[in-house]
Each structure stands twice: as C-alpha cells, then as structure tokens.
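Consortium newsletter contribution from the modelling node. Members have asked for a concrete example of what our holo predictions look like. Here is one, prepared for the flavin-adenine dinucleotide complex that several groups have been discussing at recent meetings.
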Amino acid sequence: VSNIITIVGGGLAGLTLGILLRKQNHRVTIYEAGNYPRHRVCGEFLNGAGAVLLQQIMAQATTPVPVTGSGAAVAFFNSNRRLIKVQLPNPGLIISRWDFDAFLAAEFQALGGELLSGVRWRGNEGSEGIVFATGRTIDRSEKGFRFLGIKVHLKLQMDLDLEMHFRKNGYVGLTKLPGGFANLCGLFKFDRPVPGLKAGYRSFLAGETGSVLWNRLRDAAWLEESFWFCVRFSFGSGSVWANRLSLGDSFEMIPPFTGNGMSLALEMAFATEPWITRFAEGKISWTEVVRQANRDLVRLTRWRMISARLIQTFLLRASERPMLFRFLEIPGVWRRLYGLTR
Ligand SMILES: Cc1cc2nc3c(=O)[nH]c(=O)nc-3n(C[C@H](O)[C@H](O)[C@H](O)COP(=O)(O)OP(=O)(O)OC[C@H]3O[C@@H](n4cnc5c(N)ncnc54)[C@H](O)[C@@H]3O)c2cc1C
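And here is the predicted structure:
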C-alpha cells in the first residue's frame, strides 16, 4: 500500500516537508494559493537549528541554491540610544524570502513533487493524509489588539548584521543583506486600523523624528516593489486537534523578535516527516500519525513559545519596557533569554 500525501500551503514548512517526503520517493502534492517568487513579511534572518537543516538541504540540492549571507553581530536600540551589542553564539543565515521560497519550490519539483501554485485548496479538512502548512492564522475578532507586519528592502549600508529597534507600539528589525542592501521588517500592535498606511509607510516605519531609527533611515533608498504587509494575524496557541496535522505558523507562531519562525517551520517539517513516511508506506494509520506528530510538535515548541510570548508582552507594553531594557543590560541576561526561545 502506498498512501498519497497532500500538503496545503507551499511556504517554508510545506515545501520542506514536501522535499523530505520526495527524497523517500513518496507521492506528494502541494497546493499553494500564491506564486513564486514572492516577497514575504519576514526579517530574513534564519537563526537556530533551522539554519543547519537548510544548509543540509542546500548541500544536497539538485537546483541552484540561493545566495546567503551569515551574521552574528546584533545590537538592540530604543528610540534614543543603543542598549546592548552582542555576538550570537551561532551565526544566523541571511536569506531573502524572494529567493528562499522559490528555491524550495524548484527543488521540490526537481525531486518529482507535484506543485499546484496559484491554486487555493478547498477540500475536506477531515480527509486522511492532509497536512496543513497554511501559515499565520487570521484573527477574526473585532475587538482587542491587532498585529501589523511590514517589510521592505532598502539600499542601506550596515556595519552590524542585525539591528533591533524597539518602539512605543512594536519593534523594527534591520538585517544586512548582501550587496549593500538591507531588509527592514517591523511588527506593531494596534487597537484600531492604521489609516493611509500604504502611502505613508516610510514615515510610519522611520517613527519618531530624531530617534535613532529615524536618523538611520534618513539616507536609505527604499525599494518600493519589495514592500509587503500583513494584518490581523494571531499567534495561535498550538492547534493540536484530534484529526488534524498543522505545521509551521499554522501550528503556532513564535513572536517575530526571536528570529526563529523560519527555523521552527523547518524543524517541524523534519520532526514530523518520519511519522508521515510511515503512513505513506501503509505502516500506521493517519490517526496515529496525527497523535504522534502533534505530541512531538508540542515537545519541540512548548517552552520556546511560552518564553517568547512572555518576553514579547514586556516588549510591547510601554510601562514595562524600561524594566526589560534595564534587565537586558545586566551581563549574561540577554544570552539566557535568547537560549529560552531556541
Ligand atoms: C513581522 C514578522 C517578522 C518575521 N521575521 C522573521 C525572522 O527574522 N526570522 C524568522 O526565522 N522568522 C521570521 N518571521 C516568521 C516567518 O516568516 C514564519 O514563521 C515562516 O514564514 C513560517 O512558514 P510557514 O511555512 O509556516 O508559513 P508561510 O511561509 O506563511 O507559508 C504558508 C503558505 O500557505 C499558503 N496557503 C494558505 N492557505 C492556503 C490554501 N487554502 N490553499 C493553498 N495555499 C494556502 C499561503 O499562500 C502561504 O504561501 C517573521 C514573521 C513576521 C510576521
């Protein structure tokens, strides 16, 4: 018996899983609502175990691999000064999502996978052999806070590899891309929609006049075609449903300041592939796959998610932020917090 696997969502989690399953020769179809290449709202800094997994995929690739940089020099700023400068224990990979998603898609197809791009899947959610890798969950509530994510590429010289600028209602990351470019990506929290965002996003992102970030962006050239944003997403909380297997952000989304969401998407694909393979080979039932894989996903993510959310709560609450910053400046604290989210 050989069971067919359907993956809904051709982002990092879905494509990575597809590649791993094709390497075992299983029949896989991926439905992707969008097309490649495409920009995504992302800091483009891949850090943690996922960076090693990606290098593994790239080392065995049959299609041209994307240009990547690597970086470990990071600094944190508030509006008027630099708080700390640190060296990451392991350098992160810097990779443009424009290239990254397209590379994985090409690799999946080169390995014989069926990729239906530009096709939104609308099947029966309860069917066997379906893996959901559909990305961020939309927050449908009309009340409470909304999250807004924005990204744009810039022509900007950077000395450090990553700068994190904390703002009143969010944070902005600047990542040094190869060739004198930079990726700017921000996450903001609001209790109502932001008017005129598309037209006024430059001044919105630069923030308070005279702040460190505002000065930093004064001479930047903005690459308008790379501007992308997403709104009204929720961070979810581990969608462990009896009959459903979800990966990546659709399982649970880690707060972006960790720079760990892409890593988790890859880690989750690697963690669940052995169970899905056993189903594809007709050795275990789909119910068993869902049970075992969900258990592994909870183990992989639980403490990282809890710690990251707690830190993000402090980061986004104006009254508590000064306390967190003072705490961050104590030697060794930053490294501890960093370790908790990995
Ligand atoms: C502001 C911000 C900054 C971030 N910065 C970083 C960072 O610096 N480093 C990092 O590691 N992570 C970062 N992340 C997180 C990272 O982008 C995500 O964790 C990662 O993209 C998750 O991959 P995924 O495959 O789960 O989802 P996605 O990459 O979102 O892919 C999901 C795909 O599913 C498709 N889809 C959805 N529904 C359907 C359907 N019904 N049929 C067909 N297709 C469908 C969508 O079109 C999409 O392509 C950031 C996120 C945000 C919001």
